[in-house]
Amino acid sequence: MSTTEPPSAPTLAARLGTLRARLAPTLKSVQSLALKPLLIPRDRVLAPVLPAKSRSGAALMLVIAIMTFLAGLTAGAVHLVADASRDWSRAIAREMTIQVRPSPGRNLEADVAAAADLARRQRVIEDVRVMDRREGDKLLEPWLGTGLDLGDLPVPRLIVLRLAGGAAPDLAGLRTALAERVPNALLDDHKLWLSRLKAMADTLVGIGLMILTLVLMATALAVAFATRGAMAGTAQIIDVLHLVGAEDSYIARQFQGHFLRLGLKGGAAGAVAASVFFVLGGLVFGRVSQVSALEQVEALFGRFSLPVSGYLSVLVIGVLVAVVTGIVSRVTVYRTLRGMEQAQ
User: What is the pLDDT of residues 136-180, one digit of tens each?
Assistant: First the structure.
């Protein structure tokens, strides 16, 4: 029985080199074929993964526009209330009043003149104005109505004191002098009303910021659900991308770019709509502000004129909504892909 001797080591090395040289072109073509999908430009890959135009995308963009519009209205209202609150504080802080009540056995006109004379002696008081009986009766019309004869009622007379800027008045000394000469006079520095107005304005601003936060949270939830729906509809394409070597970051960028564009379009539309609302509202309110029913609205919101900082806030909200849309979509894609890997 004849046996063949095994080839020597130099012979094996020569044969392996020849085989490697013959298979090198085949291996190179296979590798290039496997990497070819990853070398396609990003915009061409995005088209089959997420359509640029779809009903679901248009619906999400409309939702984002509505949410941005509501957030812009809230931000504008917060600016109006904050500006009005500052105007109230400045106006009230510079004024005080002296109430001179009618008292039996005393001359009301003489008491009013004495109280006004004491107020004029204060250096920091730049103006003293005595309101006549007719002006006092007019102040009571919103509560008592018109056409009433208030002559028999003990309506106090008012003296309005306007303070100069700088040093604070000597309230204790003025109260002591009034108590000695005009005991039926009462000095009101409006601090109680000022604190109540400030508390009301701060509450309205806090409510507005809370509504703004809720709107942003609702937008984020809508984007998260839309992203999950889009991933469910393109699950097979995502699997193919994984098979050819695409990483999760690459897939997340495709979804983030798509939803970021939707967020920018919807945010811009909502911000423009909110800005147009305030512009038209200011024009309309300027024409009908003389109506008595709108006087209280003007007292609360001023002239309904949004400052430049208010319009900038609306613009920032539009950009913020777009950024939140992109970030939420990216985070949702990562979590969904991680869940898919764990399920497998």
Answer: 777 777 666 666 666 667 778 888 888 877 667 777 888 888 888
Q: Token match 């061409």: residue?
A: 44
Longest dimension (CA), the chain: 153
| Inter-CA distances, 162 with 179, 189, 207, Å | 21, 11, 34
Q: Could you tell me the two tokens for 244?
A: 């050819």
For residue 187, CA distances in Å to 117, 134, 164, 302 come to: 14, 21, 17, 28
Is residue 51 classed exposed, middle or buried when 0-12, 13-18 and 19+ CB atoms within 10 A define those classes?
middle
Do 240 and 161 sit in the same domain of this protein?
A: no
Alpha-carbon span 318 to 270, nearest angstrom: 7
CA 259/CA 330 separation, integer angstroms: 9
Residue-wise pLDDT for 230-258, tens only, equals 888 877 777 777 777 778 888 888 888 88
Distances (CA, A) of 226 to 55, 92, 256, 261: 12, 51, 12, 14
Provide φ and ψ at 178, rounded to 5°: -65, -40
Task: Report the distance separating Cα 21 and Cα 15, nearest Å.
Answer: 10
Say yes or no: 77 and 200 in one domain.
yes
Asked if residue 295 and residue 239 are part of one domain, the reply reads yes
Please give the order of strands across the beta sheet that includes 95-100: 125-130, 157-163, 95-100, 185-188
- Collapsing DSSP to helix, strand or coil, 188 comes out as strand
Same domain (yes/no): 179, 320 = no
Q: 149 lies in which domain range?
A: 102-183
Q: 4 to each of 1, 174, 220, how far by Cα in Å?
A: 10, 129, 76
- C-alpha–C-alpha distance, residues 50 and 312, integer Å: 33
Whether the model clears a pTM of 0.85, i.e. scores above it, the answer is no
Shared domain for 307 and 232, answered yes or no, is yes
**pLDDT at residue 341 tops 90:** no
Whether 325 and 67 have beta carbons less than 8 Å apart is answered as no
- Residue 225, amino acid: F
Do both 199 and 178 map to the same domain? no
**Number of domains forming the structure of the chain:** 2
For residue 275, pLDDT over 90 is answered with: yes
Say whether both 79 and 158 belong to one domain: no
